[in-house]
Amino acid sequence: MINLKNIVISGKEVCPIIEGGKGINGTDGRSSGHFAKEGCVGTISLVSADYYDDNGNVVMERSTRLKRQERHEDLIKGAIKGGIAQAQIAHEIAGNNGRIHVNELWELADSEQVIRGVLEGAKGLIHGVTCGAGLPYKLGEIASEYGVYYYPIVSSARAFQILWKRAYSHYSDFLGGVVYEDPWLAGGHNGLSNAENPDEPQDPYNRIKELRATLVKLGLAELPIVIAGGVWCLQDWENYLDNPEIGKVAFQFGTRPMITTESPISDAWKKVMLQTKPGDVALQRFSPTGFYSSAIKNKFLKRLMERKEGEIAYRLEAGDGFGTPLTLSNVKTVYIKAEDLAKANNQINAGFSVIQETPDSTVVFLTPDEWKTMKEDRAKCLGCLSQCQFSAWSGVNGTTGKLCDPRTYCIHKTLFDISHNGSTDDNLLFAGHQVYRFGQDPLYANGHIPSTHELVEAIKQGR
C-alpha cells in the first residue's frame, strides 16, 4: 500500500489524484464528476466542450456561417456553453466531494474569453483552472478575479520563473500549485523547448527537484507540485513521496483514465489503446500549433511521417548545387538538387502528383484527394488557434503572413471527429508514451473496462 496523504487542493483537503484534462471531449462533466466523487480532482476540458440541444443531444455543428471570423465567434460561444454545461454535470455527480477543475490550452484563440465566460456562467461549480500550451501569463489575473485557484502547466523551473516574475507574483493568493508535465512522456502537446533534444529524455526527478528549489527561493515552499506526463501507477513514483527534495506533490493521470466506463471517448478508441505496444507512440512536430506532440502511430500519423520523409529542399534560382528544375502544381518552376530528382519522380509515379511549397523552402508531395481535402479544410477554418500553421490564420491580424503548411493538418477537425465516434485510422490519436501498459495492467485484463471507482482504488494501492 502506498502512503498517499491527502493535501489541500483548491481550498479543500482531497486525495492528491488528479484527472488530466485532455483535448476535445477527452474529459467531460461525467468523467470529472466521478473523479471528484471519489474525493479526488476531476478536470473538464474546455476545448470545444460539448453542449446540448433541447432534446439532450450533442450539438455537432459549431458554425455554418460563411466568414471565418463569424465561424470563430460561434466556436467561442459554443466552447463557453459547453464548459458551463459540463461543469453543471460534474457538480451534480460529485455531490460536493473532491474538487472540479477545468483545463484550457492557452494557445487556443481567445482562450481568455472562454475561461472568463465559463467561470462567469458556472460560478461556484469550478474550483480551479489548469492551463498550458504556451505561457499563460494572464491566468493568475483571471482566476483571482473569479476567486478560483490556478495551476499553470510548465515543463521546467525556468518556465515557471518567467511566469512568476512577469505576472504571478501579483496574484499569489490563488496560485494553487504548479503542474510539471514531463515533455518527453506526456500525451498530446508537449512543452519541449528548442534547447531540448526530443530523442534524449531527461530524468524527471532532477527537473522536479530544480522546480522545488525554485519555488523555495520564491517563498513558495508549501506550494504543491502536480506531477504529470508518464504517470501510470504510484509504485513508479514512491521515492517522490515524503521526499524533502521534492516537497508536497499530487499526481495527474492523463492516459490511464481514458479507459473507464465514465470516459467519454469511443469504444473503438479504447480498443486501439488496449492493443497498443511499446514504440507505438511517436513524439513529433506535425501539429499546426508548432509544438511537439505525442500520438499513436495509426494511418493518419504514418501518412504525415511519410510526407515529411518525402520532403525536398528547393531554391527559387539555380545555383549552389540546386540546378535541376522542378515544376510545382501552381506551374511555378523551382530548382532542386540533382540527387533529389529520383525521390521526386518516385513520389509522383506513386500518385503523389500534387507538389506544394512549405514555409521552409521545401516541397512535399500529395495525392489529388489529399490536396482537395486540405483546401476544403482551410476553407472551413474556424480560427481555433491563436495562430495556425495549417491555415495561416492569426487571431491578431487575421493571417500569420506565411505560407499555409501542407505538412500539417486541421487540428480542430480531426480532434472533434475522433472524439465524436470518428475513424481511429483517419484521425489523430493523442496518447502518452505509457499507453502500452494497458496491455500489461491486470486491471484491464481480458478487455475489462474499469469504473472510475475501480481505477482510483487501484491507484491508491499503488497498482
Can you tell me about this structure?
The chain is an alpha/beta fold. The chain has two domains: 7-268 and 435-460, TIM Barrel (Alpha-Beta Barrel); 312-406, no CATH class. The chain has twelve helices and 18 strands. It has helices at residues 29-37, 68-94, 111-121, 139-146, 157-166, 204-217, 267-274, 299-309, 341-349, 368-379, 411-418, 452-460; strands spanning 7-9, 12-14, 17-19, 41-45, 99-105, 128-132, 149-154, 178-181, 188-190, 225-228, 249-253, 281-284, 292-296, 312-313, 322-327, 333-337, 354-357, 362-366. An eight-stranded parallel β-sheet has the order 3-11-10-8-7-6-5-4. Strands 9-13-12 form a three-stranded antiparallel β-sheet, with no helix packed on it. Helix 1 (29-37) runs parallel beside helix 2.
Structural class: alpha/beta
Beta-strand share of residues = 15-25%
CA radius of gyration is 23 Å
Low-confidence stretches: none
User: How would you spell out the order of helices and strands?
Assistant: EEEHEHEHEHEHEEHEEHEEHEEEHEEHHH
CATH class placement of the largest domain: Alpha Beta
